[in-house]
């Protein structure tokens, strides 16, 4: 018996585990601390009333034999939710069939599991800095990973190099960690590149609900040709506060065919093999998000976080600190002041202002010297955090 040796190629500790350990050590030394956490992108506002009511109703159904639901009819999701998601895409001018939507227990799971469909000899192209799961899941599979530089010069929105070979391409827009968002022309460049390379784009749209600029695409399927080369992942975690509920969806269009095989059928087979579906109660809650009342309520919550982002942007602009994100994203990606390194700035903020953020270096070498803060916190604490940082800056 042998273990999967690729685990030894991972970083010894997951980024947020290291952060938690540092915070725990500081808390032990300073039990009377007033730490404000702006590191992990976890939501803080409660679920929308429409969502809660849907959960109550679904729970009541489970209490009666006539309306009880056990296993889902299949692992792809109940028709009522798949149809609601497909209808939502019409807001972006994208027409799709509900059968092209696959409900899961969160975007992270699906992004990690989708690689089951691809050969280990494929070359993977990821931007640097990058959300760790894109890299880690391919390291575990033993694939070759190449990086495309995202940096201050290109606004952390790298474009394809036609001379480079790629089979699997990861894109995230609005981006985690940088908050930068691709426009349609930039995404078209990636779609054209993927079609030319006969590659597949794995497009993470988990933060699309935070886009406020009407000219920016919410879905890669707004770009002609993307249906033939892209798979899209989205989540209810940030859109509707489901970080503790766990629900997301993956969209694979029927036009995506590789070596004569319809990729959506492969995913359907994979899910049937390894996944028993998202709970009925959770799916009813998710469907409530797309009702008229649900949309109104979640928009109010998103506006709350967007106001936090504005407070942060105003403060950093006043201080003359370079940053991206905030406008169409719940993340602020800032340049560490005074030429500090990412972990150096982390320790500086923790020990001098009792603020916890995320060191950019944890997302890749190009993140060194940068820092991520989240707008998902409490409004009053966000204001206080910015006041502490401005005081330090002085």
Please state how the strands of the largest beta sheet are arranged side by side: 2-8-7-6-5-3-4
Q: How far do the termini sit from each other?
A: 60 Å
**Alpha-beta content class:** alpha/beta
Strand content: 15-25%
Task: State the major sheet.
Answer: 7 strands, mixed
Task: Report the strand count.
Answer: 15
Keywords:
394 residues, alpha/beta, seven-stranded mixed beta sheet, 12 helices, 15 strands, globular
Structure in words:
- The structure is a single chain.
- This protein has helices at 15-29, 49-61, 79-88, 107-113, 132-141, 184-197, 236-240, 263-274, 280-289, 292-319, 342-353, 379-393, and strands at 36-37, 101-104, 123-128, 144-149, 168-172, 200-204, 230-235, 248-252, 257-258, 261-262, 323-325, 331-335, 355-356, 358-359, 370-374.
- The chain is an alpha/beta fold.
- A 7-stranded mixed beta sheet has the order 2-8-7-6-5-3-4, sandwiched between helices. Strands 11-12-15-14 form a 4-stranded antiparallel beta sheet.
- A hairpin with a 5-residue loop joins strand 11 and strand 12 (331-335).
- Helix 3 (79-88) runs parallel beside helix 9 and helix 10 (292-319) packs parallel to helix 12.
- The chain is globular, with a radius of gyration of 21 Å.
Secondary structure blueprint with pairings:
Elements: H1 15-29, E1 36-37, H2 49-61, H3 79-88, E2 101-104, H4 107-113, E3 123-128, H5 132-141, E4 144-149, E5 168-172, H6 184-197, E6 200-204, E7 230-235, H7 236-240, E8 248-252, E9 257-258, E10 261-262, H8 263-274, H9 280-289, H10 292-319, E11 323-325, E12 331-335, H11 342-353, E13 355-356, E14 358-359, E15 370-374, H12 379-393
Parallel strand pairs: 1-13, 3-4, 3-5, 5-6, 6-7
Antiparallel strand pairs: 2-8, 7-8, 9-10, 11-12, 12-15, 14-15
Helix pairs in contact: 2-9, 3-9, 4-5, 10-12
């Amino acid at each position: 018996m042998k273990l999967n040796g690729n685990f030894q190629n991972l970083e010894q500790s997951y980024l947020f585990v290291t952060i938690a350990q540092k915070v725990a050590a500081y808390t032990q030394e300073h039990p009377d601390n007033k730490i404000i956490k702006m590191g992990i992108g976890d939501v803080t506002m409660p679920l929308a009333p429409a969502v809660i009511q849907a959960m109550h109703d679904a729970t009541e159904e489970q209490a009666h034999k006539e309306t009880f639901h056990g296993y889902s009819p299949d692992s792809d999701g109940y028709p009522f939710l798949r149809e609601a998601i497909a209808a939502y895409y019409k807001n972006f001018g994208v027409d799709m069939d509900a059968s092209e939507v696959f409900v899961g227990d969160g975007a992270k799971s699906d992004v990690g599991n989708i690689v089951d469909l691809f050969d280990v000899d494929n070359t993977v192209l990821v931007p640097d800095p990058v959300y760790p799961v894109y890299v880690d899941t391919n390291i575990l599979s033993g694939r070759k990973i190449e990086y495309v530089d995202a940096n201050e010069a290109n606004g952390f929105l790298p474009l394809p190099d036609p001379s480079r070979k790629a089979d699997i391409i990861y894109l995230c827009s609005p981006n985690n960690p940088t908050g930068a968002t691709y426009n349609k022309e930039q995404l078209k460049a990636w779609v054209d590149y993927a079609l030319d390379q006969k590659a597949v784009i794995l497009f993470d749209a988990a933060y699309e609900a935070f886009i406020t600029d009407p000219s920016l695409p919410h879905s890669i399927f707004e770009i002609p040709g993307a249906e033939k080369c892209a798979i899209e992942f989205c989540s209810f975690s940030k859109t509707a506060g489901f970080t503790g509920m766990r629900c997301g969806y993956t969209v694979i269009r029927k036009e995506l065919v590789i070596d004569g095989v319809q990729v959506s059928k492969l995913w359907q087979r994979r899910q049937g093999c390894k996944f028993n579906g998202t709970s009925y109660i959770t799916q009813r809650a998710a469907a409530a998000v797309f009702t008229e009342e649900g949309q109104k309520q979640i928009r109010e919550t998103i506006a709350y976080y967007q106001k936090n982002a504005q407070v942060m942007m105003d403060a950093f602009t006043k201080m003359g600190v370079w940053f991206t994100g905030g406008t169409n994203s719940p993340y602020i990606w800032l340049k560490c002041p005074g030429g500090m390194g990412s972990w150096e700035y982390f320790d500086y903020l923790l020990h001098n202002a009792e603020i916890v953020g995320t060191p950019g270096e944890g997302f890749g070498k190009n993140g060194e010297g940068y820092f991520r803060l989240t707008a998902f916190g409490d409004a009053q604490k966000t204001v206080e955090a910015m006041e502490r940082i401005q005081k330090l800056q002085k």
